[in-house]
Amino acid sequence: MWFACGREKRGVDGNRVVASQAAKSGVTVIWNEYEGMPHEVLIFLSALPQAQHLLQLWAAACQAFAGGKIGARELQSGAVRWLIPDCKPMVLGSPVGIAPLPFEEVRKRMEYNATRPVWTGELHEHKL
Fold it and tell me: How far apart are CA 101 and CA 112, in angstroms?
């Protein structure tokens, strides 16, 4: 699995959980996280060097996979945070450790969210 997320992306923690669980399950995970970048970096901020860097990494990964130059067995999992302003890499290590919470806590919160009533404008008391 190949990930590229802005560190300021609203859903980055969810992506970290997915990447971490996949890595724990033996899936090769390549994690790229861009410091200070939002979810829409490629749409609204495409002129920034971080967006250009992300596109280059993405294109290289696609070309390598499509061209058969890299197979899943040849890849090694890794996590990198690309720092502002010049995309210097900060190696985070294994994607296994990038989840913001232990998975049991994530599961507990997911189960809680499944029981919350849909907000209709009325106040409801619901405890975790």
Answer: 15
Spatial separation of the C-alpha atoms in residues 120 and 117, rounded to whole Å: 9
User: Whose structure tokens read 């970048």?
Assistant: 37
**pTM of the full structure:** 0.75
Give the dihedral of Cα atoms 69, 74, 78, 81; nearest 10 deg: -10
Separation between Cα atoms, residue 113 and residue 123, nearest integer Å: 16
Cα separation values, 8 from 54, 105, 124, 127, Å = 15, 22, 30, 29
Q: CA of 89: how far to CAs of 4, 29, 35, 112, 125, in Å?
A: 13, 17, 10, 37, 46
- List, edge to edge, every strand of the sheet that includes 2-6: 2-6, 30-34, 78-83, 88-93
Nearest Cα neighbor of 109 from 8, 7, 9, 17 is 17
Tens of pLDDT, residues 14-73: 899 999 999 999 988 999 998 888 777 777 777 788 888 988 888 888 887 777 665 555
